[in-house]
Amino acid sequence: MKPPxxxxxxxxxxxxxxxxxxxxxxxxxxxxxxxxxxxxNDESPDKTRDAVAKFTDPRIRYVRTSxxxxxxxxxxxxxxxxxxxxxxxxxxxxxxVPNALEILHHWFKTHGPTVxxxxxxxxxxxxxxxxxxxxxxxxWSSRDAVEHFxxxxxxxxxxxxxxxxxxxxxxxxxxxxxxSPTGMLYSYISPDYASGFMMLAAVEHFYYTPAPLVYIPxxxxxxxxxxxxxxxxxxxxxxxxxxxxxxxxxxxxxxDVPLKSEFLWINSVLYDFFKFYRRSDHKPQIDWPRYYxxxxxxxxxxxxLGADLREEIQLVRSALAKEPLGLKVRVAGNVLKRxxxxxxxxxxxxxxx
Length: 353
Description:
Layout: E1 6-12, H1 16-27, E2 34-40, H2 47-53, E3 60-64, H3 71-80, E4 86-89, E5 95-96, H4 100-111, E6 116-122, E7 138-141, H5 142-150, H6 154-159, E8 166-169, H7 170-179, H8 191-202, E9 205-216, H9 220-223, H10 228-233, H11 237-245, H12 250-254, H13 265-276, H14 288-304, H15 310-321, H16 325-352
Parallel strand pairs: 1-2, 1-4, 2-3, 6-9
Antiparallel strand pairs: 4-8, 5-9, 6-8, 7-9
Helix pairs in contact: 1-2, 8-13, 14-15, 14-16
């Protein structure tokens, strides 16, 4: 039997009330050459199983785990079942626009087996309008993308071909897994970033479209609902358990960063960068003044979300007190520029309605 073109991986845990809509967004695709692999890691043995059982489409493949896998192992479990030519991860809180796979299929026919990343939109309501056929596609050098990361530029976080917002050939992903320092494709700490940095180390270039192929309905992320990022800001018990279950210590995670807080998510991303981005022909350097500026931005955003980040504020003050004046001036300039950029983006979004 011919394998499907796409393997849609849908790892899920304790979100049976929303997983059905994620499945439906795949079944409603204008390109039907796919399989959906649902890796059910619920604490409940039947809630997600019952939600999936409402669908009878033979392209759905349901796999039950032990119910207590760490996130990265649940993602790995889903990938192990994939048989398609290209792999695409969809979180249970995410939805595909109806023509997402048709757009990707067109680009793969045009450019051959390659890596394509795309935007994720936070929808105000239940859905967003599908992008036109076919939106613009940008070609990016992997080295240039990493240099953007080292300067903590927002563009990098949009274009990075990480697990949650990219589609890549399964054969390439399997090769990354065999070369991974942990033996995993979707490794700790952040499975999507870990795979993204390995991808950038392996390929010379990738493609990116600013068109949203995936969206999150009802602004769930900014409401704090189903948001891992907000869980880290707010230091929730679930996030503390997540950190405790990791096979690395707090000291290892924070060893190479000046602000020793596991609740500033950029520190986890930096750990993954140092561990998984390995190129003999490229040795990028982190811009630490911009790192401080980015952390201050995160603290401001976290406080607006109601998080208690007094300890992190003190960490910044203490660390900067030891730095030379020139670095402090660069940090202040970066914070001002980032604030102006955010204000301009809000103005543009308001103008678009």
